[in-house]
Amino acid sequence: MSVRDVASPPESGWKEPYGDDFYTEAEGAVDTLGHLGPLAALAGSWEGLKGFDQHPQFDGLESDVFVEPYELPPIDRQTNGPQLFYGLRHHTHLVRPGERETFHDQVGYWLWEPAAEAVTLSLTIPRGRALLASGHATSTDTEFEVRAVMGSSPIPSWIARSRPPAIE
């Protein structure tokens, strides 16, 4: 059995942040906190004490207040071929004041990709929902916006068109 690569290489002239070699793993620093770019100020533990939610019910709207602890510990650098990410794992679980049962729970990652000047948020909630949102930011930005558009992909088109190696 042999493995042959049938992935389509990038279009001719593709010069995004990684050049033509999309197989070689990126090298990066081990100091995640020092390389988080615009995410640096988010690292740590936070707690919101004045959360408010209003949602539809059969007979009208229901309102809830909640407390929101938000944990954002740094993760080790991550690579995907030439891509290099520094990031924070996030977990938040909302509870109503004075209660122990979780009202809402979500986990995911905030990722900073320096070469592409991109911030990405991935999150999932335990109701079968997931989200991937991305946006542009520079390493010194203190404000940025991420967006998720239904049907879109933050993955470069040449990766989306490539196929895994064929096994013969």
Could you explain how this protein is built, in words?
This protein is mainly beta. It is 3% helix and 47% strand. The protein is elongated. Strands 2, 3, 4, 5, 6, 7 and 8 form a seven-stranded antiparallel sheet that branches. It has a two-stranded antiparallel sheet with strand order 1-9. Strand 5 and strand 6 form a beta hairpin. It has a single domain, classed as Lipocalin (Beta Barrel). The termini are close together. 12% of the residues are buried.
Protein topology:
Layout: E1 3-4, E2 44-57, E3 60-72, E4 74-80, E5 83-95, E6 102-113, E7 118-125, E8 129-136, H1 157-161, E9 166-167
Antiparallel strand pairs: 1-9, 2-3, 3-5, 4-5, 5-6, 6-7, 7-8
Short account of what is shown:
The chain is mainly beta and 168 residues long. The protein has 1 helix and 9 strands.
Biggest pleated-sheet summary: 7 strands, antiparallel
Number of domains: 1
| Estimated share of beta-strand residues | over 45%
Amino-to-carboxy terminus distance: 5 Å
Which bin fits the share of residues in helices? under 10%
* Count of alpha/pi helices: 1
CATH C-level category: Mainly Beta
Radius of gyration: 20 Å
CATH topology: Lipocalin
The helix-strand sequence is EEEEEEEEHE
**Count of individual beta strands:** 9
What's the mean pLDDT score?
Answer: 81
Q: Given the C-alpha coordinates, what overall shape results?
A: elongated
Uncertain runs are: 1-15, 157-168
Structural class: mainly beta
CATH architecture: Beta Barrel
